[in-house]
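Table 4 source record.
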Amino acid sequence: MKSKLKHPVFIFSILLLLLNDFYLKYAFPGLLTGKLSDFAGLFAFAYFFSSLLPRYKKQVHIVIAVLFIFWKSSYSQPLIDTVNSVGVPINRVVDQSDNIALISLLLSYFLFSKFKYKEINPILKYAIMGVSLFSFIATSQRPIFQTTPTYKFVNIENSYQFPYSKEKLIERYNNLQMERVNYLKKYYAGTIVFDSIGHTYLSDHKYIKEAIAKILDYNKLKDTDTIRIDDENTHFYITGDNHSSKINLTSIIKYGYLPDTIIIDRTADSIPPLYNDLIQLFEDRIIKKLNNN
């Protein structure tokens, strides 16, 4: 049996991907380990599927490039929400600078094209394939033994101004919430119910009901100077009048897998890069859409 899976660079990329995802990211958090999985993963993923479809290696690399760009954009968030809602835990951080890892696809294409088929023991081949598939799944899922705590950034005080009334802002925010509900209704395998008392849509799991969207009742809130909103992992306030309105972001959370919560003041001297990723995600998911509606 012949195969190209014995290429030493491919084997190294798989081992590096596993090492980084299960140890280095958490032992040495930072820019390098954050990007390492993208470089190693893209190379290994493209090389692996090219070995399965060698006649279509060019198409494989192009499709993977397009899918990676989509995955790393805010446009993939509804898909991620849908998959998570049916019990499959996947996640990623929106960061356009991750697209620099696309250069790995060029290396993969070049090495795959130049490397000759080698004799390989069938057991070894299937072992490599099994480990490879595991590494691809593990890099997008939350490993059950992850040790990352929850990070909460406070005292953010980011303000976003809108050239329309507070009533209009609430209307647009409710429209965003309904878009999310309608999307999940289309693809969610379970049941979504509406709690008329709390004006909240809930995913009706067997053992727990999880809030997925809250609709604001402007008639009850119109006389309130400041409206506080807890939206998924963000906390912000809405203020305004009949002419303009504003959102004031006060805190943002990145949920981890330990009961510990690390609270970081926005005014601190050193802020983890994660903060900018979370702010960008909030602006893409909420602010930009409120401006475009």
